Amino acid sequence: MTNKNVIAFAFLAVLSLIVLGRYYVVKKSERPLPSLSQRLSEKAQPSSEFLNAKKAVEYYEIEIRRKPEVVKNYVDLANVFLQEGRVTGNHHEYIPSAQEMLDEALSREPDDFEALLAKASIMLTLHQFSEAKRLAQIALVKNPYSAFAYGVLVDAHAELGEYEDAVKASDKMLSLRPDLRSYSRASYLRELHGDHAGAIAAMRLAADAGVSGHENRAWALYHLGMLYLQAGKLDTAAYIFKGTLEERPNYAYALSGLAQVNAAKKDYPEAIRLLQQAHNLTPEHVFLEQLAEAYRFSGDIRRADSTAQEVLKMFGQHEKAGWNINREFARFCANHDMNLPAALKRAKIEYEARPNNIEVQETYAWLLYKNGQTPEAVPIIEPALRLNTRRAALSYHAGMITR
């Protein structure tokens, strides 16, 4: 082969590599990207909120195709999916979509701050709390002044039973950015520590920091109503839930709150109607759990049992999608006296993973009691009371075990 032929061959080889490289880059950027599904509650008339989210998805999809190397577009698109999943309860569709975008972002830039934080938020949703904590700590090294990162850390510490660290992270978050997110976390920690009045005051600040009609303000108002409900102030709680529905019609959690008020008043038909409406609007398993309980209290055992089976199926779906549902499974089965040996195994697994979390301690102790192992339950339930948390179920479980 002559020198000219060698040069020509080398040129063609390089050209082929360039063409192939461009082909694979284009093909990768042209792969089908996730999109939004129509909201169940807005089939007749899509809201401006949904239309704005849809426009955002379309914008980022165009930008990703134009500039597939820009990591921020993947992260921003993932955050749109996460918010839509939160609003609609359609986590099985939107969490995988968000994960796909974040995995792409982190494959391109493993230390991207925003991508790490978004990934940590997903880990919280999936109840993978240790991993959420690890990612938040990595992110904070990159940006120690991020209030959002401290918020993720508050949640992770609290779920792991590291309450002192949760309080420190909450204080830091408040000092950096006193807003709805930081006030709501402070409220939760105050409630855990038995400061019910302080929890209400902080949640009021959280709601006041939100925008009327927006999902995050409605979420804060729901929790404010629940704090009043826990205090036995049913009329105040109902007033808040109804006001939330005026600001954000068909908000499933406000409907659930009203249902719980009616259940407390033993108006079970109305509670059942509201919970059915809530679940039809937003298919969260928590509404089915409450519905099974309402059926049972109303005396409709057949529907209670069939609804409970639906809940267990949803738990199975969550688990296949990567969720840790051990505590939720155990607590639900204990409340309905079903699958108690299996529930105890789940509760023990979660206790071994999070031995300092008071809700995990309560669940494990209650399952020991339900399985006839009361002496073993006593040293588990006692530390669950250490924060002086004022919750009726916790006090009842501790009282029954101690008796």
Q: Mind explaining what this structure looks like?
A:
- The radius of gyration is 25 Å and the shape is globular.
- Among the domains are: 72 residues, Tetratricopeptide repeat domain (Serine Threonine Protein Phosphatase 5, Tetratricopeptide repeat); 73 residues, Tetratricopeptide repeat domain (Serine Threonine Protein Phosphatase 5, Tetratricopeptide repeat, Alpha Horseshoe); 79 residues, Alpha Horseshoe (Serine Threonine Protein Phosphatase 5, Tetratricopeptide repeat).
- About 6% of the residues have low confidence.
- The protein is an all-alpha fold.
- It is built from 21 helices and no strands.
Short description:
This protein is mainly alpha-helical. 77% of the residues lie in helices and 0% in strands.
Averaged pLDDT: 92
Number of strands: 0
CATH architecture of the domain at 325-403: Alpha Horseshoe
Here the CATH topology of the domain at 325-403 equals Serine Threonine Protein Phosphatase 5, Tetratricopeptide repeat
User: Rg from C-alpha positions?
Assistant: 25 Å
